[in-house]
Design a protein that fits this description.
CATH architecture of the domain at 45-223: 3-Layer(aba) Sandwich
CATH topology of the domain at 45-223: Rossmann fold
Order of helices and strands: HEHEHEHHEHEHHEHH
Distance between the termini: 36 Å
Helix content: 25-40%
Shape: globular
CATH class of the domain at 45-223: Alpha Beta
Oligomer: single chain
Structural class: alpha/beta
Radius of gyration: 18 Å
Number of strands: 6
């Protein structure tokens, strides 16, 4: 099982107040400097010693079974059995008009959903930075810059889907990190289709597209959607019944605390 997380913000020192999309892109014109917290608890030694670390960002609002399974499958195929997965809960995404549920609930739901898995950690950098940057979205460029300095792994990559790869050229400062992306390709998606779609963006050279193709990792198709789960939870007729893609332990946590209910 992965290292335990606190009931509040993972890895946060109690004494004070530091990068932020759960995989976020955002306006290329936003150049405001992010304020960062530098007093977070140290990276646990097993993660710090790992040679390969795969980062997976998201809102996890709520986390679903795909979040709890696909990153580990991708990590094994990319880095072998000893690779670690670091989850990065996002602060406010520049692509979403509303804020997610409170941080402590998203972190705890994620922890519950990951029970039974091994070699994982939840890194709270974006959540800790958010109070220092009120009203600002979090950007993956900032988070990845800090990850490079904090995690000593020989190989670091971050995991995205094909839809995110196709939009990468619109991400904030994408030129700083795009080569480190690892792309999940579902079994029902073809490599040639992905190549053609990337070329159609007009944003990438032939050499760039060749690099993207080398970063594809085939993963199973999982029918799970946080949006669909939230809709089901908002329906009193479905709320207490099993919901596709929602871990039963996570659902119990949600029901016990009245999350995602329509007032």
């Amino acid at each position: 099982m992965g290292p335990q997380v606190s009931d509040a913000i993972v890895g946060h020192h109690s004494r004070a107040l530091q990068p932020g999309v759960g995989l976020g892109s955002g306006s290329m014109s936003d150049s405001r400097a992010m304020q960062r917290r530098s007093d977070l608890a140290a990276v646990p030694s097993p993660v710090a010693r790992a040679e390969r670390v795969l980062f997976f960002g998201g809102s996890f609002d709520p986390p679903h079974t795909g979040h709890a399974g696909l990153p580990f499958e991708a990590a094994r195929r990319w880095g072998g059995a000893d690779a670690w997965v670091v989850f990065v809960p996002a602060a406010r995404s520049p692509h979403k008009p509303t804020a997610p549920v409170p941080d402590r609930h998203r972190v705890e739901m994620l922890r519950i959903g990951l029970r039974g898995q091994s070699r994982w950690w939840i890194w709270p950098q974006e959540l800790a930075d958010a109070p220092l940057n009120p009203g600002q979205p979090s950007y993956w460029a900032d988070t990845w810059s800090i990850a490079r300095s904090v995690f000593a792994a020989r190989d670091r990559a971050f995991l995205i889907g094909t839809d995110q790869a196709l939009a990468m050229h619109r991400w904030h400062r994408y030129d700083e990190f795009w080569r480190d992306a690892l792309v999940m390709r579902r079994g029902d998606q073809s490599e040639s289709g992905f190549r053609d779609a990337m070329a159609a963006t007009g944003a990438w050279s032939d050499a760039d597209i060749a690099h993207w193709m080398s970063r594809l990792i085939e993963t199973p198709t999982v029918n799970a959607s946080s949006t669909a789960i939230r809709a089901a939870l908002a329906d009193p007729a479905q709320r207490k019944t099993p919901i596709e893609g929602l871990d039963r332990g996570v659902q119990k946590y949600i029901l016990d605390r009245g999350l995602y209910a329509i007032a």
